[in-house]
Amino acid sequence: MTVACRVIPCLDVAAGRVVKGINFQNLRDAGDPVELARRYYEQGADELTFLDVTATVDNRATTYDVVTRTAEQVFIPLTVGGGVRSVDDVARLLGSGADKVGVNSAAIARPPLLGEIADRFGAQVLVLSLDVKRGGSTHSGFIVTTHGGRTETTMDALDWAREAIERGAGELLVNSIDADGTKQGFDTELISLMREISSVPVIASGGAGKAADFPPAIAAGADAVLAASVFHSGLLTIADVKQELTHEGVLVR
Amino acid sequence: MSGGSSPRVVVLDYGSGNVHSAVKALEAAGANVELTGNRARAMEADGLLVPGVGAFSAVMEQLNKNRSAEIVDRRLAGGRKVLGICVGMQVMFERGVERGMDTEGLGEWPGAVTELDSPVLPHMGWNTVDAPENSVLFAGLRDERFYFVHSYAAQHWTLEATRPFPEPRVTWSEHGARFIAAVENGPLSATQFHPEKSGEAGIRLLRNWVGSLTTD
Description:
The complex is a heterodimer. By secondary structure, chain A is α/β, with parallel strands linked by helices.
C-alpha cells in the first residue's frame, strides 16, 4: 500500500474564466472553469487547483461562486490560491467549498500568517505556493519571487520552504518561473532539492510540455505533478499522463 | 433531492470546515440529506454523518459545545447508524494525542489516535486499503483507491466482538506504518479517508452505507 502520485490540472481563473499565459503574460481565454473542472474529474484528475490570477476585490465574489459550483459536482479535493491574505480569506474559501488554500505573497510579507491559518484549520489545508527562480546570490542558487515571477525577493527558496513548514504549511507547491510556459520539462534539480529538505508533500509545477516530462519530476521526488496549458489546449489528457507514469513504473490511481 | 423513500441522512453541522461536499456526495449516493446541528433532527434521521477536519482537540471542543457526544451515544444505544469521517472517525476513539496534547475523545472505541511514523506527513493522496471480505462499505470496491489527508490515525484495534453485534470489521491501510482506514462496528462505521473526495469509488462507498440504513 503506497500512496499514488497525484496528477493535478491547474485552472488559472480571472473574472470567472480560465486563462493561462506564457510566463504569466498575454493571458488568453480558455473556457469555463466549472465545465473544465468537470471534464478533468471525468478524465481521472486526482485533485484540482484554482489559481485566482487577477484577485481584485471585484472578482473575488466570482471566484467563490466558481469554487462552490465546482465543489458541488466534482468529488475530488479542490485547492484555491491567489490573493489569500488573511485567516478570514481562508475561512471564506473553505466555506465556499475549497479543501485547501494556497498562500504565497501574503506569507512572504507576513510569515506568522502561516501559523495562524494552520492553528485554526490544520496544516492539511495550507499549501505554501512558491514561485522560484534561478539566480540571485542566495546559497542554493534559487530565489523566491512574487507577483508571478516579476518581483525578486532576497529570500533563498529552500530556507523559505523550511521556515514555512515549521510554521505550519502542510504541502509545498513548487513552481519554477524559469520553466513555466516553456514546455521544456520540469526543473528536476529544484524538485530534488525541495524533496531533500521537505517533510511535507511536494507538488512540482511549471514546464510540462509532453507526457514524457512527468515521470522525471516524480523520479526527482515530487509527490504530485501540476500542469495547466497542456491540459487546457487538449495537447494531453490526464489519462495520457497517467499512462506514461504507469509505463515508467510510477503508481497512479 | 426530494425522493420520499430515500433514506434521510443528517450531516452534523457543528462548525467543522468544508461539509458541502459531504452533503452533495451523499445526495449523489441516493440519500435525502440535511445539514443541521439540530438535536432532534440528528436523532431522528436514518443515518448521521459526523464530519471533521483539523485538530482532534479543536473538533472535540466544538463537538462538546454542541453536546454532540450525547447525540452519538443515544443513537448508537438505539442501534441507529452513525458514520464518522476523517477526524470524525478519530474522535470515536478514547483519546487523541497531537503535538503532545492529549485530548479525550467520544470513547466509543478503545485506543488512542497517534502520529503516523513516516518521513512525509501529512499522508496526502490516494491510497489502497485492505478490507475484510464481509465488509459492507467496501462491497464492489476491491482495488480502488481513496483520498486520505491526515497525519494522525488509530494504529491498533483492541475491541473484540460485543454481543449482539457481529465481529467488528476493520480495514487497514499503510503510510510508513499500518493504520486503521475504516471500521464497521454494529451501527457505528467510520473512515479515515474522505469518501466525499474519493471520486466515483467514494460515492459507491457512501451508496453502500446509505443502502444499509433502511435494509437492516
